[in-house]
Design brief:
Strands 1-2 form a two-stranded antiparallel ribbon. The chain is mostly helical. The relative contact order is 0.16.
């Protein structure tokens, strides 16, 4: 069980991305759960879920959405608790395209961080998260012991 309340009140996207702690900024940019979106922004910029990926499409959606926002607002109270218990969830089972998905997410994150001129400490945290994702992908391939699944390491 994880509980990540946002900082109360209005903040710029830059302030959100520079918030202390990898978990805080990660959870605030991840999935669409526990968020409200302005439909006028979604419609004006034609923001859609990326159906070319089977994992992380919600994170890509949020990044694309934040690219068109100046500010976000939060509550200092968690109204939603996300439990990840399913052993066969998308997070735990092997995905042969995971490297490409993580590469796409990281590329979008870099664009968002660049656009908001985020400080170097936050950029380092982003890189640390990306490296952690890649290590998990390698671990998943290793755990499955299928040589054909190692193709992503050749890229």
């Amino acid at each position: 069980e994880e509980n990540f309340p946002m900082k109360a009140g209005k903040m710029t996207v830059k302030e959100l991305l520079e918030s202390q702690g990898v978990d805080y900024s990660f959870i605030c940019v991840s999935g669409p759960w526990a968020k409200l979106f302005r439909t006028d922004i979604i419609k004006e910029y034609n923001i859609r879920l990326d159906t070319s990926v089977s994992l992380g499409e919600d994170r890509i959606f949020n990044i694309d959405y934040l690219m068109h926002c100046k500010t976000v607002s939060g509550l200092e109270k968690s109204l939603y608790i996300y439990l990840r218990e399913d052993a066969d969830s998308l997070f735990t089972r092997y995905n042969p395209n995971i490297y490409d998905i993580y590469k796409k997410i990281y590329g979008r994150e870099c664009l968002l961080y660049d656009k908001n001129d985020v400080n170097s400490n936050s950029v380092k945290r982003l890189l640390t998260c990306h490296i952690s994702r890649l290590m998990n992908a390698v671990g998943s391939a290793y755990k499955n012991h299928d040589v054909n699944k190692w193709k992503f390491l050749k890229n």
